[in-house]
Amino acid sequence: MGRRVSAAKARAALRGSARVSWDVLVVLVLTGVALWLLGRMWSVVWPVVIALLLTTLTWPVARFLRAHRWPPALAATAVTLLGLAVAAGTATLIVVPVAGQADELADGVVDGVDQVRQWASGPPLNIRDDQVTAALDMGVERLKDSIGDIINAAVTGVGTVANGLVTAVLAVFLMFYFLKDGPRFLPWLRGQLPGRAADDVPLVAERCWQTLGAFVRSQAFVGLLDAVFIGLGLWVIGVPLVLPLAVLTFVAAFIPIVGALFAGFVSVLIALVFNGFWDALLVLIVIIVVQQLEGNVFQPMLQSRGLGLHAAVVLLAVTLGGTLAGIVGSLLAVPVAAILGVLWQHLRDRVSDPVPDPPAEEEPQQT
């Protein structure tokens, strides 16, 4: 026998669906407002984010010093100065060897351009010198026509560099204060919040901090893997400046997408200038293989293990973050996804009913 649809149950189901839809709509609107406010305050939020990432990277050293009876201010000062020294040393390892071979590099660039021109003049391209000259003349004319846009872009670039310097300086000062006063933040926050929030918010904040530290450590390890394997490949092929290129690869790993492209481009260019076309092609193959393994195997595995996220979630988060917010979105996608996971886990624990204990088995009565 068939069943008739109950009108009362259907109306109740529709009312329930409408209520849930309304709640979801309110949450989406509030999320949109929060993101809009975040964008308006980004000039302040971005230095805080960078300072938090730097603090998670340097906190183990500060914690070690504080555990050995260093005053908080002295420990924070020492770690901040040590971090600046490491940054300066890293820049020195990259710049000084390259500057020492600047003449050879310039000559190699000229030879490389000449090799490319000779290769393009042969089959299958068969590009004649007069065609190259005509293309250069056309490029010069277009360059003259767009001189205004170039000036505007240069001014914008100078402003971007200046903003970047201001952000870096502010982030360093914030890192110092986070290292100095960070352990006092959660007790202070607990005293400012009423009722149940005094326990929930500091707990979630501590878990988010641990998650952020796991992200930074995994990213550093991934950068180390890139530097080691690409450096070994460059050494085996016989490319000069192996140490500066390996250091550049490690540093660039902290900048998603653009960092890897820039470090790979520099390595291929050095190989082309000093070793020739075929060695440069081998370097390109090594970089592509290592970066594919890093991006699709090592990084998702390490970050999924340290952050409690599935490897597929890590890949999707990076893709979505890059689509929505470019480089910054790619950089922050994984820690944001992990923090959202922490929040969801806490909310689920709070709203879930406790599992009842199984009934105790009655012991048989002795007769």
- Provide the number of structural domains: 2
The backbone outline, from C-alpha atoms, is globular
Q: Give the strand content.
A: under 5%
Helix content: over 70%
Uncertain regions spanning at least 5 consecutive residues:
none
Helix tally equals: 12
Q: Kindly state the number of beta strands.
A: 0
Largest sheet: none
Run of helices and strands: HHHHHHHHHHHH
Quote the average pLDDT. 75
Span of the ends, CA to CA: 53 Å
- Structural class by helix and strand composition: mainly alpha
Radius of gyration over C-alpha positions, nearest whole angstrom:
28 Å
Kindly describe this structure.
There is one protein chain. The protein is mostly helical and 367 residues long. The protein has two domains: 44-181, no CATH class; 193-350, no CATH class. The protein is 84% helix and 0% strand. The protein has twelve helices and no strands. The chain has helices at 7-40, 42-67, 72-100, 102-121, 129-145, 147-181, 185-192, 197-237, 242-252, 258-274, 277-307, 311-351. Helix 2 (42-67) crosses helix 8, helix 8 (197-237) packs antiparallel against helix 9 and helix 8 packs antiparallel against helix 12. The protein starts with 6 loop residues before the first helix and ends in a 16-residue tail after the last helix. The model has no long low-confidence stretch (mean pLDDT 75). One of its GO terms (biological process) is transmembrane transport. It is found in: Cell membrane. It comes from Actinokineospora bangkokensis.
